[in-house]
Specification:
The chain has 243 residues and is mainly beta. It is 9% helix and 50% strand. The chain contains four helices and 18 strands. The longest helix has 7 residues. It is globular and about 55 Å long.
Length: 243
């Protein structure tokens, strides 16, 4: 099993994904042979999570617990020991996953960056595939329409990259697990009035089920590397994740 897992880390793997009702990306995952389950691919999460419903059904051993930093704050969360998690041919053993309610996650579980260590990820939205590629492999062939976002890890937890809005350089988190783009008060202060169009309040919910209110707006332009996003929907809220 160890040899198979090591071999899987050496080759590119292509995994079919589908979008849920919130346009988020989910992939099929098996846990110790059970499943498949639909797990959300979340590049904004440093830890993998599993639903309490699955943890109970599979009688997973309890872990040591964790402090969970979410949209609305920090809280204590139970954990469960997952003997084996498999995505396509890629196998990971002895994961300690955070346990959350399926209704709050909107999926059976969350694949965090701890399952994608030393890998590159390519999302092909036209073909609905996700490719996991060893980071030391040759560069991905840039086909027409390919968007390359080069990022770095900060404190081993968040994937960040440089961006520009209204001529000001920003640091943003690429978070495939979030349904909406969220900005903080500091970003709102530096943007000129012509960049923002108010659209009204919106309710945000974290993976813990707690809620907060933000202000939905439209950002006229955001540059992300060589990519220009225009009329981007963004919610301004003082989310705990910024601090």
């Amino acid at each position: 099993a160890a040899a198979a897992a090591a071999a899987a880390d050496e080759v590119a793997q292509e995994i079919a994904f589908r979008t849920d009702l919130s346009s988020r990306l989910t992939v099929a995952v098996t846990l110790s042979g059970a499943g498949p389950y639909r797990f959300l691919v979340d590049t904004g999460a440093d830890r993998t999570a599993v639903s309490s419903q699955i943890a109970n059904a599979l009688r997973l051993d309890k872990g040591g617990g964790a402090r969970l930093h979410s949209l609305t704050g920090v809280s204590a969360a139970p954990t469960a020991r997952v003997p084996q998690l498999q995505i396509s041919e890629r196998q990971l053993a002895n994961l300690e996953a955070v346990v959350l309610d399926r209704g709050h996650m909107g999926a059976d579980g969350v694949l965090g960056t701890d399952t994608l260590h030393s890998q590159r990820v390519l999302f092909d939205f036209k073909r609905k595939t996700l490719s996991i590629i060893p980071s030391r492999a040759r560069e991905i062939r840039e086909e027409r329409g390919t968007i390359m976002v080069r990022a770095r890890a900060r404190a081993g937890r968040l994937i960040v990259t440089d961006a520009v809005a209204d001529g000001r350089r920003l640091v943003v988190v690429i978070d495939t697990g979030s349904e909406v783009t969220v900005g903080n008060a500091a970003l709102r202060r530096i943007l000129s009035r012509r960049q923002i169009r108010e659209e009204g309040p919106v309710e945000l919910m974290s993976v813990t089920g707690e809620k907060m209110i933000g202000n939905s707006t439209s950002l006229s332009r955001l540059e992300l590397g060589e990519v220009r996003l225009e009329q981007l929907n963004i919610v301004f809220a003082e989310a705990h994740t910024f601090s």
